[in-house]
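Archive record
______________

***
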Amino acid sequence: MMKMAKKLVLSAVILPLILGTASVYAFGGKERHKGPNDECGGFDRGIMQQLDLTADQQAKLKEMREANREAIKGEHKGQRQAKMKAHHDKVQALVLAENFDAAAANELAKEMVDQQVAHRVKMLEKRHDMMSVLTPEQKAKLQTLQQDRMQQCMENGPKHMKKNS
């Protein structure tokens, strides 16, 4: 029973790392990170430019983007790196231990999930704040543009898939 739990937790931790690395190489490595204009879906300025934003709206959105950028930089790079190192050390201690500790593995996995959830909630909140700048008409137009893009992506596939084929 313990060997099975050990295998499950190890695969739950290692498999996403392997698949993530493989997908990065499959899509051309660093070239893949060209921004949201190169992907289907997502949120990009190209669509926002089609909404005929007022100068005031543009200024507010720019201010929000800059504030978000500064907040990320302000998270004390050293502190963020220390957290990442501590997390890495926990994973290493777990997988290199003489005996597998399923309880510790479960706790570590829960921590990882909680961090992901918190990050996604924060991103959704920021996106909501940005959308609150739009008028109801602009929101309706945004939905239409996003649906059109989604339809186009479903018919043609993402742009990056065409580059590599």
